Amino acid sequence: MILGIDEILKLVKENNLLENLSERELNNPEGAGIDLRVGKLFKLEGRGFLGIEERETPKGILVAEYNPDKKTSMVINPGEYYLTESFEKFNMPSNLLAVIKPRTTLHRSGIITRVSVVDPGYSGTIHPALYNAGPSPLEIELGARYVNAMFYEVKGKTNPYRGQWQGGRIDTSGREKQV
Fold first, then answer.
1. Is the pLDDT of residue 179 over 90?
2. 45-76, pLDDT tens digit by residue?
3. What are phi and psi of 155, to 5 degrees?
4. Would strands 129-132 and 111-114 be described as parallel, antiparallel, or unpaired?
5. Residue 165 DSSP code
């Protein structure tokens, strides 16, 4: 079952489900989810590896970061790919799963968004990817709402997230053994 706004905000206040929410989301959210803001943009550099027991990701090079006191924007040109980091941080309980979807302005602007689920037990920021598959550049302000988090209650037992991305790191910083 998907949680409504009242249940989400109750969990935010009582259990710190999401940190760093905007005033808009705390006081006037819409729909059945919470909008998240672009906190950071990264370009990827180097080669990745995905093996049976080991992995290595390209290095994430920070190119822009949200500062609430200063408007900053980036242009995503056709064919460019950025890894982002949400400004908000998740603290997922063992009975919830979050599904993240892009806001429609992104796909109306030619941006393909890739994002994973937020597992029970995960704590940290998330890292949606933005790829401009359209014919036109898109200027995006850091701090803009860009994805929406919907929370689903899990019926039955879960195994809390125990992976190496716990805490919201951006890359592997070299080859590592997979958990």
1. no
2. 999 999 999 999 999 999 999 999 999 999 99
3. -90, 125
4. antiparallel
5. T
Q: How many CB atoms lie within 10 A of CB 35?
A: 19
Work out the number of other CB atoms within 10 angstroms of the CB of residue 48.
12
Backbone angles phi, psi at 21, to 5 degrees: -65, 145
pLDDT at 72: 95
Average pLDDT on 80-98 reads 98
Pick the more confident residue, 178 or 142. 142
Contact criterion met (CB below 8 Å) for 77 and 137: yes
Supply the DSSP string of 88-146, one letter for each residue. Answer: SEEE--TTEEEEEEE-HHHHHTTEEEE---B-TT-EE----EEEE-SSS-EEEETT-EE
First to last CA, the chain: 30
Q: How far is CA 63 from CA 41, 43, 59, 79, 142, in A?
A: 6, 7, 12, 17, 11
SS3 content of the chain, % helix, strand, coil (to 5): 10, 40, 45
At residue 45, what is the residue type?
A: E
Q: Supply 73's token pair.
A: 């924007």
Residue at token pair 């989301």: 25
Please tell me the pTM assigned to this model: 0.94
